[in-house]
Design goal:
The complex is a heterodimer of chains A (438) and B (309). Chain A contains 20 helices and 13 strands. Chain A is α/β, with parallel strands linked by helices. In chain A, strands 1, 2, 3, 4, 5, 11 and 12 form a seven-stranded mixed sheet that branches. In chain A, strands 7-8-6-9 form a four-stranded mixed sheet. In chain A, strand 1, helix 3 and strand 2 form a beta-alpha-beta unit. In chain B, 73% of the residues lie in helices and 0% in strands. The N terminus of chain B is likely disordered. Classes of the chains: A alpha/beta (438), B mainly alpha (309). At the A-B interface, helix 1, helix 2, helix 3, helix 4 and helix 13 of A face helix 3, helix 7 and helix 12 of B.
Chain lengths: 438, 309
């Protein structure tokens, strides 16, 4: 979910993109990545040691306060335990993952599950970590394991945490105005019209960067057509101009009037602000949205899973993307990387980390949740009680389809206020056909 | 003469005000328009900068609550100290120096040599060579990034030059790119300037037995001090401001120069824009200082050699 631009550098970082953009998204991916699988050994000597010791280099994917502090405490504990040092590379590589993995300056890196991982596994830019899974696998649920497994049946990602996409609201506002948490679509629209009468925008909404509204598509499609259809569709096995997809878009079209208008000009942080300022009543977003609020507002936040649309599917699915760790193809220190990954999969590491990052919940099953915040406990409940857990649109489908095709299609849909659903689904299908055939 | 000029100016300014009130009003109206336009333009240019400064002085929690267009409850320098500690700005400033200072010196040295030969000696291909150097400047550098990335990845460096053992992810790589892309422009400017230096100077030196090297080093180069100063100012700003090359060619956060390092302060989702505004202001200061104090060179850098002597 996040920066949609993972394998599609052209979207967001305008400067970099000028360059990569010229090559076109599709060209850029093979462009930089292809050369890596020619088997040309990089000049770095990749040695593997027998006994784990020395230093592991770790790609941290940011120099921002939130992940850094948590990982620092995890690595300090790891060093104390094993004597292995972890050297962090605080580099935001999300939007340059091709360059980054091709150059491979680190041994272990933070990355995402699903197609986001599979793509690089198939490009052979990362190593399989089945030997780590042999040690830690019993502590991880089968659904999470699936998300960490590539087409060849091997695991390429060691999961760390996930986080749900839910509808946030402010307890004080609901209490003051006597609103009730909606369980069904009808209740949602009734509540929304009440909010409108009370001068509130019912649902804060943003799609400036293009990935934000994918979450809304996911949840609507899963509620209307069910998880299985959704996943098949994103996997290229169902048609986008199917009536079922049209009915998802049509539901969305009917819900657009209760969303904040002109979403394409608004970042998710600005949309969150509308909830913070009590101008909007609800906000459907990933749990990272909580970072946007000051402490008093955080205390006042609560959430509910998106209401039921079709009773056949109820509220049985949710987007809860998994983040974890990959190991590059030829790590400098394979043995130490392996023990670092094993440690990171442990409940102990997750507990340490989640103290500083309270938007996420651990994927390790034996984690002690007593230190979780109120919201964290509820996240864990909501994910745990969902029969199906999806990864988010841009992780559940090919990266060369998600950002270059679905993203602008959804933006077109929003721009036209839901007009021309037939045209949009037809164009989606024709592009899906050629991309999934390749 | 020197005493006459100021008086003439004063005379010209004063009488219209006193003697022709009608003319003055007309002038004033035109001037008001002019100043309104100028002030508006200046404001439009300054607004983003001033807004960044204003944003950088406000805590994130406050702007998240009230929006960026709002009055502050209180201003704080906290973002600046965070940028220094959490953003590790001093280290990245140092990285910039490691790249920019040698690149600047080498660029000027190489381009002055090339300009000397191309402008002071007549041979069949010198115009062609100059054209090629200049044409290279017209190529958008981003176009070659993919092949460059691959080449850099495959070029081995001894580990004492770069611990990764490749040209990729090294200071050398960015240094080479800067030199390569700036030599063309500098050669063009310097050769135009050198053409204006009378040939008699080097002819006389030749008669006295000065070698080509001597003519370059002892005669032409000292005379080129003005364009060299101008180019140094301009080039420093350009290389300092570069965001693109290090972003693509460096994959270790700690090696990046200051501009590209700024990018890492964003989170995967959450970005503290106020912190980034503070860091951006700090990063802009050196270029602003260079511009304010060396303005004369700056303008000359853009115009030197523009007229044919």
């Amino acid at each position: 979910m996040e920066q949609p631009t993972a394998s599609f550098p052209g979207l967001d970082r305008r400067s970099l993109l000028k360059g990569m953009g010229l090559l076109g998204a599709a060209a850029a991916i093979p462009g930089l990545a292809a050369c890596a699988d020619t088997g040309t050994a990089t000049p770095e000597s990749k040695k593997s040691a027998g006994k784990a010791s020395g230093t592991v280099r770790f790609g941290l994917n940011a120099n921002a306060a939130v992940p850094t502090a948590g990982y620092d405490s995890v690595f300090a504990a790891f060093e104390q335990k094993t004597g292995i040092k972890v050297r962090t590379n605080k580099l935001l590589y999300t939007e340059q993952i091709n360059n980054y993995l091709t150059a491979a300056p680190d041994d272990v890196l933070i990355w995402n599950a699903g197609y986001r991982m599979r793509f690089f596994a198939e490009k052979q830019l990362v190593s399989d970590v089945t030997s780590v899974w042999d040690q830690v696998g019993s502590n991880i649920s089968e659904a999470v394991k699936q998300a960490c497994t590539a087409k060849d049946g091997k695991q390429y990602l060691v999961p760390f945490y996930n986080y749900p996409w839910v509808t946030y609201y402010r307890k004080s506002v609901f209490e003051k105005r006597g609103y009730a948490v909606p369980k069904t679509l009808d209740e949602l629209t009734t509540l929304a019209s009440q909010m409108k009468r009370d001068g509130l925008t019912p649902i804060a909404f943003a799609d400036k960067e293009g990935w934000e509204a994918m979450g809304t598509f996911d949840i609507l499609n899963m509620r209307v057509n069910g998880y299985d259809f959704h996943i098949q569709l994103l996997d290229g096995k169902e048609s986008w101009d199917d009536d079922r997809v049209k009915s998802t878009f049509d539901t969305w079209r009917r819900l657009l009037p209760i969303h904040q208008p002109q979403a394409l000009g608004r970042t998710w942080q600005e949309a969150a602000q509308a909830l913070g300022q009590e101008k909007a009543g609800m906000y459907f977003m990933g749990s990272f949205a909580v970072d946007q609020f000051d402490d008093a507002t955080k205390e006042d936040l609560d959430f509910f899973p998106f209401p039921e649309i079709d009773s056949e599917h109820g509220q049985d699915a949710i987007d809860a993307p998994i983040d974890g760790f990959m190991m590059v193809k030829r790590p400098d220190n394979a043995a130490a990387s392996q023990s670092l990954l094993e440690y990171l999969a442990s409940a102990e590491a997750a507990e340490l980390y989640l103290k500083t990052d309270t938007n996420d919940v651990a994927t390790a099953q034996n984690v002690d949740t007593s230190n979780y915040t109120v919201l964290q406990k509820k996240y864990a409940d909501v994910i745990g009680s969902s029969k199906n857990v999806a990864q988010y649109l841009d992780r559940d489908t090919r990266p060369d389809f998600a950002a270059p095709v679905v993203l602008p299609a959804i933006q077109d849909f929003l721009k036209g206020n839901g007009a021309d659903i037939d045209g949009i689904t037809r164009s989606l299908q024709s592009q899906a056909k050629s991309i999934f055939a390749s | 003469m020197t005493s006459v000029v100021p008086e003439l100016l004063i005379e010209e300014q004063r009488p219209p005000a006193a003697v022709h009130p009608a003319r003055r009003r007309r002038l004033t109206f035109a001037r008001v328009c002019l100043h309104v336009v100028l002030a508006t333009t200046a404001l439009v240019w300054l607004l983003p900068l001033l807004w960044a400064v204003y944003t950088s002085l406000r805590p994130y929690a406050e702007t998240a609550r009230k929006g960026y267009v709002s009055w502050p409850d209180g201003l704080t320098l906290q973002n600046y100290s965070d940028a220094f500690t959490q953003g590790e700005l001093p280290r990245f400033f140092f990285n910039t120096l490691i790249i920019v200072v040698p690149a600047l010196l080498v660029t000027l040295l190489l381009s002055s040599m090339a300009a000397f030969v191309l402008s002071r000696f007549a041979f069949r291909f010198n115009l062609l060579i100059l054209l090629i150097l200049t044409a290279g400047n017209l190529l958008p550098p981003q176009v070659i990034i993919t092949p460059l990335f691959q080449i850099f990845r495959l070029v081995a460096l001894p580990t004492f030059m770069n611990s990764d053992g490749t040209l990729l992810n090294s200071y050398w790589g960015v240094f080479i790119v800067h030199v390569a892309f700036q030599v063309g422009f500098c050669t063009f400017v310097l050769s135009n300037y050198m053409k204006m230096i009378p040939h008699e100077l080097t002819d006389a030196a030749l008669v006295d037995g000065a070698s080509v090297w001597r003519q370059y080093f002892s005669i032409i180069l000292p005379l080129c001090r003005p364009p060299l100063a101008a180019l140094a100012t301009l080039q420093f700003t350009w290389m300092y401001n570069d965001f693109f090359w290090a972003l693509v060619l460096m994959v270790s956060g700690e090696k990046r120069p200051i501009t590209s390092a700024l990018d890492n302060l964003r989170g995967t989702f959450f970005t503290d824009n106020n912190l980034i505004a503070a860091a951006s202001v700090l990063i802009a200061l050196p270029t602003i200082a260079v511009y304010v104090f060396l303005q004369k060179h700056f303008v000359r850098g853009l115009t030197v050699g523009a007229t044919k002597g």
